[in-house]
Amino acid sequence: MTHIALAVFTFLTLNPPASAFAEVGTQVDKVEVATVAGGKEPVFRPDIKVNALVFFRSDQDRSVDALRAVAGCEKELAGKAVRWAAVVGDGADKGEVSAVVAATGIKMPVLVDKGDLLYQRLQIRQHPVVIFLDSKGVVRAGEAFRQLDFADVVTTHVRFLLGEVDQATLDKALNPDATALPGQDPMKKALRDVNMARRLYEIGQFDGAVKQAQTALEMAPVPGAFVIMGQAYAKLGKCAQSKGALDQAQRADPQNPDIAPARALCAGKT
Asked: How distant, in Å, are the alpha carbons of 7, 69, 114, 116, 184 from that of 35?
């Protein structure tokens, strides 16, 4: 890869295109829409200062990664004046969407955009993306998915709109120092290895998933690596090793929603 190509790749990774959604100031109608769970929810709530809409696709790995990150934002910002809602297109498979919700641990309602009217109004051109509305349903900001620091960027957006941080803090989150490249930060490198391990697990490459998770743990103690190891060991029939990995995941992150389903893979086995 040439220096120019590498520079373009780095820029796009850290700064996704700004044209992925409608302009700031776009107004959204105050309407209720159906949810995947069968109820109805408003697109935004006028009693909430920040309304965050997460547009995703259930058949897209990037969306799954984004939802996992946003699940962390939900926990970190619990109790704040922010309301979270995920949004899928009219043609989304509800069973598939429900499975992704369960796997990623998000607690927010999932809205079904009948006729894709919200997609059209907000000009959603790529997935995943988070749109921030104020209490009047006006677009205040938007953030397309980025591989690096997505949860931190989303959290900082919310804190800025709540008035908890200043513009300089937001700017720093949106445009990290050029030296903060993936290979220079052990935690970021570990998270990339975890993502690779997850993909290997999903395509049935269980030995490879274990090795990739071990590589991640050599860089940093990422709880997700232990979970994937536990899942992969279970699929390989190595339930003792699976239990050991999941016990470590439990100690590191007791609230991880993936631990219990992973343990179930070895239920009744020795």
From this structure: 42, 21, 10, 14, 42
List of domains in the chain = 10-174 (3.40.30.10), 183-264 (1.25.40.10)
Residues 39-56: what's their mean pLDDT? 96
Bond from prior residue into 128 cis (ω within 30 degrees of 0) = yes
Q: Are 143 and 56 in contact (CB under 8 A)?
A: no
Q: How confident is the model over 72-108, as pLDDT tens digits?
A: 999 999 999 999 999 999 999 999 999 999 999 999 9
Phi and psi (nearest 5°) for 37? -75, -10
Number of helical H runs and strand E runs in the chain: 11, 7
CA distance 118 to 112: 10
Among candidate residues 61, 181, 73, the one with its CA nearest the CA of residue 130:
73
Q: Which two tokens stand for residue 70?
A: 């946003």
Q: What is the CB neighbour count within 10 angstroms for residue 213?
A: 30
Task: Report the alpha-carbon distance of residue 205 to residue 236 in Å, rounded.
Answer: 10
pTM of the model: 0.62
Using CA atoms, how far apart are residues 268 and 19, in angstroms rounded to an integer?
Answer: 52
